[in-house]
Each structure stands twice: as structure tokens, then as C-alpha cells.
Design a protein that fits this description.
This protein has 455 residues and is mainly α. It has helices at 2-13, 29-51, 57-60, 82-108, 118-124, 127-141, 149-189, 192-220, 228-248, 251-256, 262-280, 321-339, 345-351, 387-405, 422-448, and strands at 410-411, 418-419. It has 15 helices and 2 strands.
């Protein structure tokens, strides 16, 4: 029994080499650490989701002083709608804790060059204490007084989400690049008709979905004499997607990047349509936004034509289709960021990672003298990813998940209803343009900067 306790303690307090060793005995240390940190982010995300489940507000209202008839907000007496506010506040505080936790590691891990740096042991070990630290920050965050915290953190969330949307697109570009490269190599070495046919089919499906989105957006999110912004957003992003698709198959571009093609462009076009949809779903004008949730009251002084909006019901419903899609993309990109190992030079430079493949480790060679299988330290000569940038990405991911789970809504001054604002719309749209510009740069950079080595 004593030996068992010692082994358990070493796994909780030791290095990442112990984590997942039974499932991934030949996994590198760098991959296991990223997976472990991503798991902590996903754990916080799950807790945040639980906080906004229907009926959970009844339990949150029982927390002393968290939302007691408005008395926790100075100057407001008995006017706070706790059924809505407690879920919103809980998500903000949990995500605030995750952001602070990962930002602390951003500072700690600055300029770590290899696993020989003493700070690398903190990155790759002490998981039990890290989890305790995260839980402690989260508990403490629930005692933050309201004041201006929610408003300030809302704008932090918008800026962080803007950046993370761009990172998501970069990860999707890298995924599509690896996908395209893998299938092209299989086509060259095997059944070429099958693999090229599969590539063509997937590309057509992605473009078909993207075009269907454009049509549906014009049908449901525009009006003949209204919704000018939506018409501009849809048209511009459609045109931009056509432009990047053409650039991706230009002969000069494919000379310097042989694996550039329509598969990547089609996936990016589909993602751009999602961001466009997400942006339009935050328009406070119900005439232009049929997907506005019932807990929202328009912020405009002059109500939009049509039935007057009602106040939120006693049970807050935070979920909508674009939020669920956003969560799925977030989960996919988080996993991809943890296990990716790309040879796309432009993407590696943007994401501060090393190119090439990890060393191949034979099954059974990762075990120690005690017979316990451990991950292999593959960073003795140099780190395979920038520790600080990785944690900064998780910071941004925490802010993005905060905004996604609360649908980018913000409470009014009396904390009675939630409001969707135009700044949220513009933040998402501008992030889609910025992300498309980044993708375009990955295509033309080898041509524009021909003197630099992008191999």
C-alpha cells in the first residue's frame, strides 16, 4: 500500500512523463504537457457550461452575497434579475480564473529554451499543485465585487476573442494543409484516382456548404429595406473567399507552395461563413437577427418594428446554434493545438512552433528501469514549441470561451436583462477579415519576401 501511495504521489507531483503513460507510452513530453494544460482548459469550460445549464441558477443564487436581491451591487436595491445574472457572473469568474492562471505561466515561461531550464520542470510537472492553484483562483474570483468588473472584463473578452478567432483560422489552415499533403502523397504512391477524387469531393462539399450559407444569410438575415450592414458583411466575405480561392491555385503560388490548393481555401471559406453568421447573430435588431435569444432586450432606444420584446423568462436559456458550433470548433482547435506537428513553415512561424516530425520512438523503449512507461523528453536540445506563446493562446482561448458561452451578451445598467451590442458584431466581422488576411499572407509571403527562406 505504501508503494502504491508513493507511485500515485509521483504521478501527481512529478513530470508529464507519468501522465497518460499507460495510454500513450511512446508520446513525447512536449505533447503530453500540452494535452494536460488543454485538459485543464477543457475542465474549466465544462464547469462553465454547467453553470449556465437551465435550473442551475436556483443553486447559484444560494451562494451568500452572490446575487441577493441586488444588494451585492452598490446603489441598486432589489432590481437585479438573479435568474440571468448568476449564470453570466459565474462564467465570467471561472474564465477570469483560467485567464489569470495561464497568464501566470506566460510570465514564468518567458525565454525557456530547453528542458534543461529549471522552469521547464514547472511546465512539465507538478500537475496536482497546478490544479489546486487553478481551483484556488476560481474560488477567489467568486468573491470579486461586481462594480465595473463585468464591463471591463467584457471588453477584455472581445479583444481576446478577436485574436483567438485568428489563431483558430491559422490552426484550421495548418490542419487542411496537412490533410491535403497526406492525401496528395497517397495519390502519388497508390490509387491516384481514389485519393484525388476524395480531395475533389471534400472540396466541393465545403464550397457547397459555404455557398448555401451565403444564400441562407441573405434569406434570413437581411430585409429588402433594412439590414444594410448584413448585406455588406455577406457580400464582402463572399468576395474575399473567392479571392483567396483564386490566389491559392495561382501557378506562381503553387511553385513555392506545392501543397497549396482549394481544400484549404474551401475550409477557410466555410469557417469565414461561420464567423459571419456568428457576427450577425449578435445584431440587437430583431428584424435583422431572427436568432436573437429571448433573454436579450435590444439596446436601441427606439424599438425595432414588430412585437415588443419581453423580459427574460425565469429560466435563462443561453444556448443557440452558433454557440454550439463555436464550441465544437473550439474543442477541435484546442485538441489540434495540443498534438499538432506541422511542416508548414509559415504556420509554424505564426504559431511559434518547430517544424518537422518528432522522432519515432519504438513501442517499449520509453520505459524506465522500474518498468514504468513514461513519455520521452524530446526537448533537451531545444523546445518544440514556445511555452509562453502556448499559454498566451490558452489565455485567449479562455476569453473566447467566456464570450461564446454568454453569446457575447452584456447586462444592462440595472442588471435586469442582457443586451447584444453592435461592437460585438464588428469585433467578429473584423476578426474574419484579419484572419483572411493572415491566410492570404501565408500564400503570398514566399513570393513577396523571396529573399527569405520559407522551407
Amino acid at each position: 500500500m505504501g508503494a502504491l501511495n508513493t507511485d500515485a504521489a509521483s504521478c501527481l507531483c512529478g513530470s508529464a512523463s507519468c501522465i497518460l503513460s499507460s495510454c500513450c507510452p511512446s508520446t513525447n513530453n512536449s505533447t503530453v504537457s500540452r494535452l494536460a494544460f488543454s485538459f485543464m482548459l477543457l475542465l474549466g469550460t465544462v464547469v462553465s457550461i454547467i453553470m449556465i445549464l437551465p435550473g442551475m441558477e436556483e443553486h447559484l443564487k444560494k451562494i451568500p452575497g452572490f446575487c441577493l436581491g441586488g444588494t451585492s451591487i452598490p446603489g441598486i436595491e432589489n432590481t437585479v434579475n438573479c435568474d440571468i445574472i448568476v449564470g453570466y457572473k459565474s462564467v465570467y469568474r471561472i474564465c477570469f480564473a483560467m485567464t489569470c492562471f495561464f497568464f501566470l505561466f506566460v510570465l514564468i515561461m518567458i525565454l525557456v529554451r530547453s528542458s534543461k531550464d529549471p522552469r521547464a520542470a514547472i511546465q512539465n510537472g507538478f500537475w496536482f499543485f497546478k490544479l489546486l492553484l487553478l481551483i484556488g483562483i476560481a474560488v477567489g474570483a467568486f468573491f470579486i465585487p461586481d462594480g465595473i468588473f463585468n464591463t471591463v472584463w467584457y471588453y477584455f473578452g472581445m479583444v481576446g476573442s478577436f485574436c483567438f478567432i485568428s489563431i483558430q483560422l491559422i490552426l484550421l489552415v495548418d490542419f487542411a494543409h496537412s490533410w491535403n499533403q497526406s492525401w496528395v502523397e497517397k495519390a502519388e504512391n497508390g490509387n491516384s484516382k481514389f485519393w484525388f477524387g476524395a480531395l475533389l469531393t471534400i472540396t466541393i462539399v465545403f464550397y457547397a456548404f459555404a455557398f448555401a450559407c451565403v444564400v441562407l444569410f441573405y434569406v434570413f438575415y437581411t430585409q429588402p429595406n433594412d439590414c444594410t450592414e448584413h448585406k455588406v458583411f455577406i457580400s464582402l466575405n463572399f468576395i474575399f473567399c473567392v479571392i483567396v480561392s483564386i490566389v491559392a491555385i495561382l501557378p506562381r503560388v503553387q511553385e513555392v507552395n506545392p501543397y497549396s490548393g482549394l481544400l484549404q481555401a474551401s475550409l477557410i471559406s466555410l469557417y469565414t461563413m461561420y464567423v459571419t453568421w456568428s457576427a450577425m447573430s449578435n445584431n440587437p435588431n430583431r428584424q435583422c437577427n431572427p436568432s436573437l435569444l429571448s433573454l436579450v432586450q435590444p439596446a436601441d432606444a427606439t424599438p425595432a418594428p414588430g412585437p415588443a420584446p419581453t423580459k427574460a423568462s425565469t429560466t435563462a436559456q443561453w444556448w443557440d446554434a452558433q454557440g454550439i458550433v463555436g464550441l465544437i470548433i473550439f474543442l477541435f482547435c484546442t485538441l489540434l493545438a495540443s498534438i499538432r506537428n506541422s511542416n508548414n513553415a509559415q504556420v509554424n512561424k505564426l504559431l511559434q512552433t518547430e517544424g518537422g516530425q518528432d522522432p519515432v520512438i519504438e513501442y517499449g523503449t520509453a520505459g524506465g528501469e522500474d518498468g514504468v512507461r513514461r513519455a520521452v523528453d524530446n526537448e533537451e536540445e531545444g523546445v518544440t514549441y514556445n511555452y509562453s506563446f502556448f499559454h498566451f493562446s490558452l489565455c485567449l482561448a479562455s476569453l473566447y470561451i467566456m464570450m461564446t458561452l454568454t453569446n457575447w451578451y452584456h447586462p444592462d445598467t440595472e442588471y435586469q436583462v442582457m443586451r447584444s451590442t453592435m461592437p460585438a458584431v464588428w469585433t467578429k466581422i473584423c476578426s474574419s477579415w484579419f484572419a483572411l488576411a493572415i491566410y492570404l499572407w501565408t500564400l503570398v509571403a514566399p513570393l513577396v519576401c523571396s529573399s527569405r527562406d520559407f522551407s
